[in-house]
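Render Putative hydrophobic protein (TIGR00271 family) in 3D.
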Amino acid sequence: MLHLRMITPPDRTDEIVELLERTIGVTHVAVLARAARHPQGDIVLCDVAREAADGLLERLRATGLPDVGSISVDDVGLMLSRRAEEAEEAAPGDGADAVVWESLVEETHEESTLSVTFLAFLTVATMLAACGVIMDSAILIVGAMVVGPEFGPLAGLCTAIVRRAPRLAWRSMTALLVGFPVAMALTCGFSVLMDTVGLFHEAKFLADRPQTSFIWQPDAFSFVVAFLAGIAGILSLTSAKSGALIGVAISVTTVPAAANAAVALSYGNWSETRGSAVQLALNLLGIIVAGTLTLAAQRVFWAQHRKSAA
C-alpha cells in the first residue's frame, strides 16, 4: 500500500475527495479541515493499493492540484486493516508488478544528477577497480562494481526515453558523459601516482591476469550480460525491490572497464585501452537498450491491463 497526503484549497476538497472515493483501490480517506498553513487549505489523506496508484496520480495531476496544493506519496511498510486488504484485492493486477511512473521519474531524476557526491562515488569506485586490476583481485572488482553509482543515470535515461522527458534525458546523459571521463582521468593520475610510489608496477599490469582479463576482452557475452542486467535493474526499481540492484551492480563491468582503460592509458597500452573502452560501451549500450525495452513493455502491459479492467 501507498499513503497519500494532499494539501487542497478548501473549495477543491470535495472534488478531490469524490475522486478518491470513486477510485478502485483507495481506502482510509480522511480530511483535516483548515489544517494546512503554507499553503493554506485542507489536508486530505488516503491509502491506495500500489497497482492503482499510477492511475490515481494521473487523475490528481489532471485536476491541477500540484499547481495549487501538493501531493506526497510514501510507502507503507506495515498495515493491519481489513479494508486495506479489500482495496488491494479490488485493484486490478498485482502490486509487485505495478509501475508508479511518477515515483520512478522522481527517483531517477535524483539519482541521475551530476553532483559532487556522484563524481566522488564513481571516482572512488574506479580507483578501487584499478587496484583490483593491478592485483588481479576479483573481490576488489566486485567491490568496485557495488560502489559505482552509474545505474542511476542509466535508469534515468531509459525512463526519459519511454516518458519522452528531454530534461531528464539531458541530466542523465550529462552525468554519464561527464562522470566517466572525470573518473577515468583522475584514476589515470592515481595510477601514475601509485606507480611513482612503487605500489603499482607495469610488470603486474602486463602479466597474466586470469581473474580480471575479461574486463578488456569484450565479446558477445558482454552485451548479453549487460542486457539481462538492464532488465533486472529496471524491474528492481519499478517493483520497489531495491535489493536486486546489488546483483545488477556486480554483473556488469562498467566501472572495472573504465578503470582498466585508465590504468592502460597511464602505461601507454593502447590495445587494452581500446578493449576496455569497447567493453564499457557495450555494457552501457546493453543496459540502456534493455532498460528502455523493459519500461516500454511494462507501460504497454499496464495500459492494456487498465483498459481490460475498466
